[in-house]
Amino acid sequence: MAASKSLLDSLKKPEPTNFRMTDFRRELHLRHKREEHAKKEKLRALQESKYVSRYAITIDTSRARSNCDVLRMSIKELGFKEYPFGRKDNCCDVHWHACHFEENPEVFGGKVNKFPGMSEICSKMTLFRCLDIMRDLFPTDYDFYPRTWYLPAQFHEFSCEIRKMHERRVKPKPTFIIKPDTGAQGDGIYLLREPNEYSSLSGKCHVAQEYMSNVYLIDKFKFDFRIYVLLKSLEPLEFYICQEGLARFSTLPYENPTNKNIHESFMHLTNYSLNKRSSTFNRSDRDDEGSKRTLTSVLRRIAMNGHDSNKVWKSIERIVCKTIVAIVPEMKVEYQAAIPPGKTGPSCFQVLGFDILLLQNLKPILLEINASPSLSLDSEQEVSPGVFEYVLSPKDEEVKYPLIRDTLLHVVPIDKLKYFRKKKKQRLLKKLKASTSQKGKRPDPPVKQRTSIVIIKADESDEEKREVNVTQQMSEMHMDVDSHGDGTARDVNSDDERESNIKSDTELDEEVDNYFETKLRESCLKQLYPAIYDEECERYRILERVAGLFIFFLGIRGSLRIGPTGFRTFARKCRLNRKGMTNASVDIMYIDLQRRWDHMNPERTSGSGIKSIGKKGNGLCYQGFLDACIEIARRKFYAPTKIEMLENLVDHCELNLNLRDNDLANNLPRLHFRRLGLQYRQGSMYAMPRRVIDQMTEETTIEDLLKAHEKKLRQPSREDIEAFLRKSRRMIYQPSSGSRVISVTKSPDSE
After folding, report:
1. 108-125: per-residue pLDDT in tens?
2. Residues annotated as region Disordered (predicted)?
3. I need a surface site. Which of 11, 154, 288, 688 has the fewest CB within 10 A?
4. Residue among 172, 165, 211, 159 at smallest CA distance from 189
């Protein structure tokens, strides 16, 4: 017995010494991932094997993540072709991704719903620095956001400002809000009143802003707007605003900040991701109730209170236009770094989320821009303590579904969209013809079912059977005659109705065209630029010309920082030495600005040497280059206003560079014509030298300009030489009588 037991023990497998319970879970998880991957590959192969027309509009949703629901609803309604697992050749018309542009290196064509570097541009520090520069140039136009300090670099200035306010005894006591530079969903935001309450131990950068306490309330709750904006393209600049949005409410009644309630985040912050955790969050399905409401319902409520809601909306539109114009230069720099000229790459578009707060006097205030606003249609609902369930939100669907549908219609290829609408028009026309013909068609007579069953026994004779059948047939005939006795009059009336109901082809075509026109008119997207605010915002686009100079002198292809050699080349080719800028002063300015901006952006500066001159590392960023241009303009191109000084510097640089159409943006001369009150016509005028354009005055016409251009081509006359020498201060011209020789004598003051 003992021997058999020892034999069985020897046959058993030895137990592993390093056995862990998690090995089974890991194996099951890996097996599940392999099965899911194999299933996806089978579905992808099956999808690739299907025939797809070359005119089909294809949408890649492989990386859409939480945006899949609203995307699939829009794609299904529009009749587009969805690729949920992508395509092998990545050749789709639209790639809708929920990640950053830099995370999609395999996309070489089509359109992508992300711009390069947009997450950094929409960060708190970069955004408000762009707005600060525009406020410095246009003080009265850029007053729609709170004063901002950048911590920890400007902590000393921030502390001095708080101390000055305390000395003046400002009432109410000032409160400031601290936001992380790259924070989202209300994470890391808090309020303070003393500078020593700021903690910089985390090593992250923050922005400090004045807290707006005098806000407009509805039902005693604080709220802000989420405005959706479609940035369709950069060249040419084109963007739209969604006429429907969301209003996000706090979940505690609002009170002015005090030392007791300063930490109540559910009272002072309106972020949905934060307030949905509150026990008082109201999930009402009505538009004008709840902690999340539609934009139009709130505007109606404002109008019911006796205010002008249209004026509020116009102010919001202007804020959107001015903000996008302020960040476009940074976007162009990032775009050329990701997709340099000559490199194949996709074109970009993006949906942005603007957070707007209303003050008590209904003045809109920009809080921030969200580069990746939430487009999900579901919301969390607590079914039991600690257990949440995702349910469909009717308000999110009402706002986001038309937004995505109309966005796809704006960004898909135009030729395919025209073909798609043509085919859809043909199908709709066929359906309308079929419906009109069915209306005029005579309906078939109803088939009467037997109400009784005749049972014939087997012992009955043939005569009895025949008699029963004839009787039954005669009764049916009498029933048919009775039911259709007045059929002649009905036939005449039905023929007349059929002739009146059948429409002609032209009427059907008009009906189909009206259908598509109403669909276009019902679009929730309204074009702001260039349709409405082209004239108003054109003068703010001077910084795009500075960005063009910065891109022109970048030494390394695809970089974001200009090195010392590129900065010296900028000063030399623009002939700034003629204005008194020596090489030593240029080098000193470059070193000072580089150190200052590296100190301002410690999170985005690392590395050393030439190889690090790029996205991160040594070199001067675009905003530092802009500071250098403003300083040079202040020293050497003095004018009454800063914007005039900067325009004089940019005109001087472009004149000396003699830049062509392809070197800078295509809309550079537009600003000259708008400034002089002339109408811009791109064509022969654009090819003329810039020195001729710079000499234009308000009385100048096109004919005068052409005559002046021809005069420049002729040889100078004697009167021109005399006028030129009279203006010279070094020599005095004395014309000799009766001789053609020009004599020049030195001034006695010079001896």
Report:
1. 788 999 999 999 999 999
2. 430-451, 476-504
3. 11
4. 211
